[in-house]
Amino acid sequence: MEIFETIYDELIGFLGISRAWEILSTGNYDALRTYEGVTSFILPLIPLLVILELILGLIYKKPHTKVYRVNFLIYIFNRFIGRFIAIAMVTLCIGWFQPLALFQTEPTWYWFIYAYIIWEFGHFIYHYLGHKVRLFWCLHSTHHAPEEMNLSVTYAHFFLEAPYADTIRTTVCILAGVQPEMLFIIMFIDGTYGAFIHVGENVMKKGQFGFLGKYILTPSHHRVHHAKNPLYMDTNFCNLLNIWDRVFGTYQEEHEDEKIKYGITREMDSGNFMDVYFGEITALAKDVWSAPGLKNKMSYIFMPPGWHHTGDHKTAKVVRDEYFNTQKVTA
Q: Is 51 inside a domain boundary?
């Protein structure tokens, strides 16, 4: 039946095992000497960890199934309406901006380090704007809505966020001379590690990585980023290297005496797909509609979430400053 074939294809697509299965079934292990062959065995790791995480949640009786359910619906929704847009934007940005680069990198280890640092800078810009510009927050908030951290959160994104993110990251890298071939390798590493740092406590309790945590972003750091606690709000924007968070003062360690509370500050039903996916857009539309004057309407779009035309602001900066003033604690 065609419907079963479609379900089978989607399952294989989710697990990312089609290329690996082809290599195993044909016995053509020479393919493992190629970039495509190596990545074909890495891609399935995150989906398989998602399944393991869910199984462990059932064993520990802490599955929070509504998180998996909503994130699964988001994954299916995005598969049908946004799967090729990000790829198209990356291709366009390379074509537009590569001729404008002042120089070009070469395939050496030191240029690769340079390229990754530049990529992280582009990621920081996109991610920072996603929290500080309300229009972009509408695209990013879907990812922060889940009230528990687990690997399924990796798939919780508004369909336009990837094109917006990749436009910024690709443009920064290409203008800085990063070769497209090197960029694609970095994007694969970044995507794989970026998925991994969403691992939940059922699989990795602490997720701090000891001394490595001084140089790279760990699951613990990213759990902090997903928290709505005033101490943790709007911190740890990087993905692998925590260089730019330290440079711009947005780095935050997890405190043992400050238990992370996941989700967003707006009252919402995290088990409702429509509220998770479109809730922030609806809230923004209501604020713009009721705001007096064009200036205030535009301010609601481009000022940070929590900005209010009366001056009664509840932005992350305001909330965090009030917390530090009342609690007398340090970051």
A: no
